[in-house]
Amino acid sequence: MLLILSLIAFSAYSAENVEYARFDHFSSKDGLSSNLVFSLSKDSTGFLWIGTDFGIDRFDGSHFKHYRKKEYPSLHRDDIYYVSHLGNDRIVFGSFSGMFQEYDRKKDIFLELMPNEMDSLGYSQMKGTCVSPSGDYYVFSNEHVFKYDVQRGCFNSRFAAYDSIHSPFITSLYVDSNNRYWLGSLNQLTIYDEHGHVLHTFDEKHHHCRPVTGVLPIDEERIAVTFMGDEIWIFSKNDLTQKTSISIPFKSVSKVLRGKDGRIWFATDGDGLWYADSLTENTVFNSVIPYNGTPDDIKKIYGLAEGDDGAIWIGTHNTGLWCVNPQDDYNIIFSGDFGFPANMCTSFAEDAKGNLLVGTDGNGVYSVSSDLRLIHHYSLKNNNVTGICSTGDNIYVSTWGGGIQSLNTKTGFSSEISYDTINSPSKIFFHVSKSKDGTILGCSANDDLYMKRPSELWHKLTLQDDSIKNLNSKWIVRTYQGKDSCMWILATNMLWLYDGKKVKAIHPELYEKKSHYPYTIIDADSDEDGNLYVCSSRGIFRYSSDGTRFDTLSFIPNDNYRILKYSGQERFWLASYNAIISFDPKQKIFEYLPGNYHDLFYIKSSFIDSKGRICLGTTNGFYLFNPSKILPDTTVQHLSFSDLYVARKKIMPGSSVLKDGALSDQDEIELEYWMKDIEIDVDVIDYTKYDKVQLRYRMIGLQDEWIPMKDARTLSFSYIPTGTYTLEVEASRANMNYSYPRMALKITVLPPWWRTWWFILIIISLLSLGLFFYIREKTLQLRQKMELQTKKLNQTIEERKKLINVLSHDLNNPLFSVIGSSDGEMTHLTHDEVVEMIEDKSVWEENTVLIVDKDEKTRLEIKEMLSDYFHVIDTSDGTEAVNVANSQLPDIIVSDMDESEQSMAEMAKQLYASERTKHIPILFVSSKNDAVDRLLGLLCGAIDYVAKPFSQLELLLKLTNILKVRQEHQKLIMQASISTRMKEHTMNKDDVEKDEIHPFLQSFMEKVSECYTDSTMTVDGLAGKLAVSKATLTRKVKSMTGKTPMEWLMEYRLNCSFQILQNSNSDKTISEVAYEVGFNDPSYFTKKFRDYYGFLPSQIGEKKK
Fold first, then answer.
1. Which phi and psi angles does 883 have, rounded to 5°?
2. How many other CB atoms sit within 10 Å of the CB of residue 7?
3. Three-state SS for 929?
4. pTM score above 0.85
């Protein structure tokens, strides 16, 4: 905790003392918002709240947390005039213009508390609060007093005394245990009863009343009133007429406080900090001044508060925050705390007056008074001090280069001593000391040990052991008192034991082994029994008093120890690079001294003064403490999580992450997967100075190892993967040998929506559904395929049955002999393969097949067989077939001859006799397969004859070939007809007429020759001239010739143009010819001409040549 050493010096006045103490100081350099501190207050948790002119600060002993309007929009302003703790962890703030607010920790916002009456009274300055002994809350402004209404949850004027207790400028308010109101103002003190009746008034005119600054109960019977003047009034609670005035040695009291120990503290606006243990006419007032500062640093004080440990906190006008702790005997002090200059402290001693003598390397000797108030410097002829030895009034000082000097502390004069009979004495000494019998021992460099017993002359002791050849130690480092009159002597190459007569080398075997890191004794000290304990390069050892035995103290942790000191009662002290520990060799236990020691300890620099205080020298000063009064703190006052930040943005309570309030109230939180740069602040209250709380953390599930936080109070995670973790934070001190305080926070990082359970369930459901439909579809396809194969198999079976029936029954029965099995006919090709082998399938498009068969079943089977490829119509007899052929003009007729050869022959005769139908080819099918029957069918005019049973493919191929030949024949006739019309001598008219052109095509060509010159002629126009629909015209022409009507019209125009251009008598241009034959664009004509003939119209002349 905070360190102080109280130093008292009486002044010329019996009622005034000056006390110097060490203060802890915090300013804006340490994180304080402003060095102008208006008010201080400690809350029930232990935080110190600070009102400044630049915001509110909350202090935990090490770190300042800021509350400013910029980060907290609910805060009205930043200049906070006062801070007050009302109890129940309620912190309120007041300032100018009616600002009166409360901080809500759970919501992390500032709530409005200003009384509604001030809307009409005006927004005057809020001056302060008061809590009565009965627990009622009051707040007062410049002019009015308001009471907290518990039922309404606000401050208002609903109490009996409101209308009476007011003043033009209220400065203080106190409500005593009798519910009397003590109201102080600029020039008056008024006391009211609970109903507002005036009991007593003390004004400036009659009572010399100065501005009242505070009213404070000092015990159960008395109340003190402070003023801006130089007196204090003491009232009796039971008799207000009894008033005692006490003169005080200071003025302008700004704050007054009664501590937990009954001590009364006064903060003044100009005279610094004062205290008194009682208030009577003979009271001694003590001025407290920092010896690590100046009186002016704490001259003007505006804030005053007491900590839980009794520390007094003050807020100043321009130097920030200061703290003094009256518990001065229970702390560790560093020399810089009381003004000792930075020096390398090599040695210590104590003079006859109890002053501490400090030897330094390069700056002589300092004398520090026992109360650490006075520091005196002695400059020697050689200031490289290595050791100090006090024999009362005479001080021996060993130096490096100036020999051993004698220092007179009264005169400050020093001179090198005379070594009597020693010739050419050494100028370099490691140390000087005094043995138990008063012998002065000088440890020289390369010149043996110098000795001067009482009443004897100086002489040298040579360190040589006859039992060891060539062993001679001349570099003497230290001497230590042994058992009885024995003396331990430490040289650079050996440890010796001197019994007063002779010296003996102790365990020389430890030094014999050659090494780059040999056995070396760093420091040593002996106990009451003469046993020598040493810290060496190999560890901590203990030598028996006679030097015959030694053992290792293995229970002590390994470290680079530089100092070893015995303080009595089986307690040794070790100082390493960054720690001080004590150990008990009998109980084999050790303990760390609280604190962090960053200054490098100077080797062998230690001392114990007459008060039992241990001094440990460093390269920058020294530490001072009394081990018997060190009470290490083994508790942690407060540990909690504080604030949560995501991507440097603070997460407020009530948000989706902190639904249930502040982070400190949560056991678990949920974070979204996209939240990165997570920061979690940790609150720790720790006002100790040396044994600061150490924090460490781990994230179980992410990193299970503990990680120290050092001085940081923020945990940072750049990224936390999806999952559930437990964040643990543990607090400890140096000597907490039990379970450490630990807090835990469960953190769940939610997965992205595509990794949530419901999305995965949907995906599984969709995949399952998709798999179900896939399997179902494949099952249906397999079933259909099986049904198709079954159908084909049944069909094959039926065909085979029919074949058998044909062979075994009446050959004239057409029902069972239509379709033969194709398996035997085409054993190596499937139906689909044969269909794909047909190169030109265009003849199937728009061609009509007429089926003639009396047997309905046979007729339907053939129709079903061909309907996938042709337009099929059917009829049951020959007479009807003639009528259908005349009306619908089919492209081919498939007729059965089994029913009646005479009727079929008559049908063929009528069809071929008609100009309209004589071009239609006929294909006969019959179960009669002898030569006579086939010839008879062909004689009737049939194109082909198919014997039953036949295959579907055979019939399809024959129909395709017949129609293809017929189509090519009609195309040839059409082209010949066009050429004949263009050029009469190209082909004989009789030859053309002999070729039978389809009547419909004949009519079509006539219409083309009539209107080809019309450039607007379309298919619709041609169809209209032929009295048919456009679709019928296109279907008929395309099915019979393979070309569309417009293609024939284009071809006709091109032939005409060719004849015109070829005529040598014609002098028409190409454009004129184009327009003449029906083109309305010469360029388009030229393109079509070249596409058709392979050369341009302009090249016809060249072709003729």
1. -60, -45
2. 20
3. coil
4. no
